[in-house]
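2024-03-11 09:14:02 DEBUG pipeline.ingest accepted 1 chain
2024-03-11 09:14:02 DEBUG pipeline.ingest length=138
2024-03-11 09:14:03 DEBUG pipeline.predict start
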Amino acid sequence: MTIDNLPTLNAILNSTSAILLMMGWLSIKKGRRETHKRFMLSAVFVSILFLTSYLIYHYNTGSTPYPRHDFTRVIYFSILIPHTILATLVVPLIITNVVFALKGKFARHKKLARWVFPIWMFVSVSGVVIYLMLYHFA
């Protein structure tokens, strides 16, 4: 694997995270706490792998400019800007929510999760969309 393969790996990790998040959400809706816990901790682990790979890639390559100068540029930046802001904000929220859950503070965990889950899902899915726009539809 080379540095050039990392964007694809990152998209795979983001997709995996989104699937794990959805499975965790479905599990808790069905009252399956242990299954929910496994899915969510797996999503955290995959997200840590993503963040590590993402930082390695951008440390070595810098930023990747959007190559098109047409109407898709506005669409790209309208996805990228909230993605970037929310990706930065969601990390401490995820950590806080995991700590609440592991300490058994489930009321606080549930209250915060109502905000964290949709933001985390948006960040994971929009990350894949950004990848596709940069590397496959450009």
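2024-03-11 09:14:41 DEBUG pipeline.report The CA atoms of residues 39 and 65 lie 34 Å apart.
2024-03-11 09:14:41 DEBUG pipeline.predict end
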